[in-house]
Amino acid sequence: MRWTDKPIVAFDTETTGLNPWLGDRLMEFGAVVFHLDEHGRVDESRTERHEFFVNPGVPIPVEVQKTTNISDSDVVNAPPFAEKAEIIWGLLEDSLSVAHNYDFDQAVLASEFQRLGRFWPTPLAEIDTLDLSRRFFGGARGHKLAQLATRLDIRLVDAHRAANDAEACGRSFLAMTHRFDAPDQLDGLLQWADAIGRPPVDGPLRLDDAGRVMFADGPHRGRAVAKHPEYLAWMVVARRRHQGEWQHRFPESTRSWVARFLRLRMAGRAVQGGRSFGADDWAPESCAVPDPPLGR
């Protein structure tokens, strides 16, 4: 699958604070959808911009108002998240999703979805431009979005407004794909970006109806993969003897996906946690993901 044929959705959130698991809420959402032409360049005529306030249901702290220029009066008549959830879900589902410090924006939105009894959607890719900045510009003094955009000659006007940040993020991502020779195929892009996508269909993992990655086979069949990191680690290295030779038990595509999942979700960054994000979800030892009843 060529990722350049898919919509690239860069998104950003503005929130009442930095702790969504402790009650901070979404107050503005912004996303810019890019479509590429046959030469891999942005088709500006098809670019879509989405931005709207959300009533967070809590007061906006003074320091946040100063940073974002968003006040209580801006959001008091805005709709609650429940009225915008379907739009956000539709933008992210089946897209290449991109954000700067992806884990935070995902945590914000996942916590909002969780309040509605919903799970995080299943993008084709979850790409973090903060990670890419650290890798490709390792000697830089800083990796904030504005600093990355400047290095790539991307214009960022009125920072800390969601859609503006989202556009700069998306254009920065695309600029890096050209400058640093990203592969055309989606599997190659995921490796190039060290990003998580959907589990490969030829392996023992699957997505359930709620978008959680589950074991489709083996001793943990029907259970969430984040519940068993030790088994995931075994899957990466497990071998068996076949016709006199030692061979990997699992396909390379599965081992590559599992390795990225362990590195990005289980090594001090947000673990998947059934697509929920709480205070305990931000530690490698926290794998308390409720399993659905077997046979569901």
Description:
The chain is an alpha+beta fold. The chain has two domains: 1-198, Ribonuclease H-like superfamily/Ribonuclease H (Nucleotidyltransferase, domain 5, 2-Layer Sandwich), CATH 3.30.420; 199-296, no CATH class. It contains ten helices and ten strands. It has helices spanning 62-68, 72-75, 81-92, 102-115, 129-136, 145-151, 162-179, 186-193, 229-237, 252-265; strands spanning 8-15, 26-34, 48-53, 96-99, 125-128, 196-197, 205-207, 213-215, 239-242, 245-248. Strand 4, helix 4 (102-115) and strand 5 (125-128) form a beta-alpha-beta unit. Helix 6 packs across helix 7 and helix 9 (229-237) crosses helix 10. The longest helix is centred in the middle third of the chain and has 18 residues, at 162-179. The protein is globular. Residues 268-296 have low confidence and may be disordered.
Quick structural summary:
The chain is globular. The protein is built from 10 helices and 10 strands.
Features of the shown structure:
296 residues; alpha+beta; 10 helices; Nucleotidyltransferase, domain 5; six-stranded mixed beta sheet; globular
Average pLDDT number = 88
Name the CATH superfamily classification of the largest domain: Ribonuclease H-like superfamily/Ribonuclease H
Top-tier CATH class of the largest domain: Alpha Beta
CATH fold topology of the largest domain:
Nucleotidyltransferase, domain 5
Helix proportion range: 25-40%
Order of helices and strands: EEEHHHEHEHHHHEEEHEEH
Q: Uncertain regions: pLDDT < 50 for 5+ in a row?
A: 268-296
